[in-house]
Amino acid sequence: MIQTMLQAYAKRVVAWRWAILLLSVLLVGGAVSQAGKVQFSSDYRDFFSADDPGLQAYESLRSAYSRDNTVLVAFAPKNKDVFTPATLGLIEQFTSDAWRLPYTRRVDSLSNFQYTRADGDDLTVKNLVSGAKDLNPEQLAAIKRIALAEPFLVDKLVSSTGAVSGVSISFLLPQLSDEETGKAVAALRAKLAEYRSAHPDIAIHATGDLLLDYAFEEQSQNDIMTLVPLMYLCIFVVMFCVTRRVAGILGTLLVLTFSVLAAVGIAGFAGIKFSAVSVSAPTVIMTVAVSSCIHVVLAVLNGMAQGQSKHAAIAGAMGATMPILFFVSATDVLGFLSMRLSSVPPIVDFGTIVAAGTAASFLFASTFLPALLAVLPLKVRPAEARRGANFGQLAVGLIKYRRLTLAAVSALALLGSYGLMQNRYEDNFVNYFSTSVPFRVDSDFIEGNLSGVHEILYSVPAKGAGGIAELEYQNALERFTAWMRAQPEVYSVASISDVVKRVNRSMHGDDPAYYRVPDDAKELAQYLLLFELSLPAGLELNDQIRVDRSATKMSVMMRNMPTASLLAFEQRSADWLQKNAPAYMATRGTGPSILFSRIGEVNVEGMMQGYVLQLLLISLAVAVFLRSFKFGVLSLIPNVLPSILAFGAWGFFVGQIGMSVSIVAVMTYGIIVDDTIHTIFKYVHARKQLRLGADEAVEYVYAQIGPSIFSTTLTLMAGFAVLAFSHFDLNKDLGLMSVMTIGIAATCDFLIMPALFSLTGRWGRDSKYAQHPPAVRAAETRETTLISET
């Protein structure tokens, strides 16, 4: 029944070829109309779902204090001394100019640091630096002494050596349109370019979450502009080497284009944003789609090489390949949809987009491609009919060493399992970008010379409204601040307790003995109020104190460290507060670094669930479709092993698994299982329909589909290798790991499957094909007859 339907379908594709071509173009046109709705994500918070507890905690903190996006600009003079009239004058001027940038809410630097001095019972608060270009050596020395003794400044706005100084700019975006980030970044970059040109003796670097947001969007667009054209070139070269036919090359390129446009259109219709992760979806879609096209084109060329007419060869090829193409496309779609179990929205979007593109590629490969081949001129030489003989002979040669092969593979599996356990999860959002990306270069410089780029934020609650002015709270907060500064992982700490201590010292004639929390609660409340009333507009404490004075914000800049260590530090700090401070002060740290660290653990759990789900469903589908539990189990071995070996090798040579590498097993399983399914289905056909012995069937299988497996593997590896040219390391690592997994999978299909077939499928006559080549030639004759009749 199914065979009859396939025969009828294949004939109609050829007969209705012009209508199919027109309908395909109309479908693509409809998709293109929706593609214009696609947007690019320019917010790193899009990596987290709206109901993520960590994101909610971070957004709650930002709402309580200020929803600023910050940028830290570092100035590094060649003489390694910022305390000179020229450099301080530059910082003073830039501080003034920064206030005039779009959406600027606050600017902090050495020049406008609010230095306190007492005049009797009055408190004087003024800028630390004023008229820098006219300062004399004594004044410069005094400024340097004050700055390098101030905890709020050291390793935050000035390095402990005085060689680098920073200007912190807080941007408050109205969030009325998606262009605000680009406008703010463009204005900042223009200003930095102006200063770099005017002051070539001072290196200027910039980092911060505003620039991080824009870097995600910028690299997404750059990848599309570079990777997609490179992918087209790669596919053209592969298809030329495989087919050497204009019709095959043109048809394949059009199928890829239609598939990508359909996926992008679906994304636009569904409101899915493209991010720095999902932007690689077009490249993956093209890579997967070209495999189906290669199988169709080579099947048509094989039929024509055996003497069939072009239309008969197309009909025969579609009738023979449609069930397998449908099955492997379904497994691909299942594999990509399994990524929806991830807790990372960009990974979910990536899986959804590629699944849609894969489904579209099956539709076009089974309709548009054969219809186009039926229209375009296509000629084949009869000599090409035996192009797969070498693959068949290789498979039979490997059968002789099947026990040795399986023993060696088992040993490698054990070694790979050990290497797999050496991996540890490690993610760093700064390291998502290549070292050639300016944002990464600037961030690395600032982290190594001025301050950390990993910030943990704490909203430390008091005992109700106004509670921050109580002695118990301030003393506990001061102890917590001191404990923080004593930790080796910490660069610097900004805490309101420093302000309290500084004002108390100023009100007692700058006596160092009074650099502590006041002993009297009334004094404490008065000092805080006096300091706040003395601050100029724009430099208020609302970024450190809640409006109702029920909590204060502590900012802790961390050194670069592994993800696990960062989370361990945050847990240690929460434990310290619980044991050493009043219960009402208990809190947890938050911030982008904590968010990205925690999301990895949850993502790995989701990916493991998706991987196991694929194993079960695909193996079950194979067993049901072929009515054989044995082949369902056999499909597992050559497809689980590549993941073990690839992750094992990664464990030995890299040892760190980030967000992108964690999705490779799920993403590639649906891809690498394709060749296994082709092999198993063809083997079953040879045994049941052609009545070949186990070894004869093995050589027949590899003689028939060996060239296709070889060609599709090269194409897949080349396609994912294109991702290695991305400047976004998530995509780069994804590409490299996928190349390794797919290469190992193809090797397993050639090495393991013949041995497994030979050991498990030897029943009835047990002929050695290497000694009886006429048997397969007879099989090929029967196969040709069946196709011709179709």
From TrEMBL:
Taxonomy, superkingdom: Bacteria
Residues covered by the SSD domain: 250-375
Alphabetical UniProt keywords: Cell membrane, Membrane, Transmembrane, Transmembrane helix
Subcellular location: Cell membrane
Pfam families assigned to the protein according to its UniProt record, in alphabetical order: MMPL
Transmembrane domains' residue ranges: 224-242, 249-272, 284-305, 312-330, 350-378, 608-626, 659-681, 701-728, 734-759
Biological source species: Janthinobacterium fluminis
Record's bilayer topology term: Multi-pass membrane protein
Protein name: MMPL family transporter
Family: Belongs to the resistance-nodulation-cell division (RND) (TC 2.A.6) family. MmpL subfamily.
Xref: PROSITE patterns: SSD
